[in-house]
Write a structure and sequence with these properties.
By secondary structure, this protein is α/β, with parallel strands linked by helices. It has two domains: 63 residues; 115 residues, Rossmann fold (3-Layer(aba) Sandwich), CATH 3.40.50.2300. It is built from ten helices and five strands; from the N terminus they run αααααβαβαβαβαβα. Strand 1, helix 6 and strand 2 form a beta-alpha-beta unit. The longest helix has 27 residues. It is rod-shaped and about 115 Å long. 20% of the residues are buried.
């Protein structure tokens, strides 16, 4: 089947094909079309033109598909996604004393608006719920941790708790002068057992201000 093409149609097609060629000026492009008119309107010229048109249409469709498939990726804003650590109040902070003897400071702290203060006589398991739930842990040096740390007792216990739970506020207190031990460089604070109640309260308030 032979299809006859109008000259003006072919010229418009060629003009569109060469439109994106920045090296061809308008006059140069028209001169080139006029000079090659006889060849362009031959069967071979028309076939080549149709082939070019198909290629251009295909490229346009491919570009449209590629543009549709582009996914805009927005990197998460860490400052928005990170949870802001809420500071606890006196009523919320969990305070644990590990002491084999009754210690009056526990009742004093409860009356000083630290209601969640409790005492246990010893620890036989470092994964116990009492340790896991506590925010602040006061550890007596003598008479506790004997089963887990027969030699170092409370010092060994305090060191182990702080090493396993660095986020916890661990305080050593004792009624006796103590020998040098690694625990003293690891824990958050050290108090004599006969320190004024204010000093215990002050340590808890320091924790709340962190």
């Amino acid at each position: 089947m032979y299809i006859r093409y109008n000259d003006n149609v072919v010229i418009r097609v060629l003009w569109a094909i060469t439109k994106n060629n920045q090296t061809l000026k308008n006059k140069t492009r028209m001169d080139w079309i006029i000079q090659n008119k006889e060849w362009l309107f031959s069967g071979a010229g028309i076939a080549i033109i149709l082939g070019l048109i198909k290629i251009l249409k295909k490229d346009k469709k491919d570009i449209e598909v590629e543009n549709k498939n582009i996914v805009n990726i927005t990197l998460p804003d860490k400052t928005k996604n990170e949870e802001v650590k809420k500071k606890k109040t006196k009523a919320e902070v969990q305070t644990l004393f590990i002491d084999d003897e009754k210690f009056d400071i526990v009742d004093i702290l409860k009356k000083a608006d630290f209601p969640n203060t409790k005492t246990i006589k010893d620890v036989h398991n470092l994964d116990t719920a009492d340790i896991k739930n506590a925010d602040v842990i006061f550890v007596d040096v003598n008479g506790v941790g004997c089963k887990l740390f027969p030699k170092d007792q409370g010092l060994g216990l305090a060191e182990a708790i702080k090493t396993r739970n660095p986020e916890k506020y661990v305080i050593i207190y004792s009624a006796q002068e103590q020998r040098l031990h690694k625990a003293f460089s690891i824990v958050d604070a050290i108090l004599p057992k006969n320190a004024d109640p204010y000093e215990f309260i002050n340590l808890l308030e320091n924790y709340l201000r962190k």
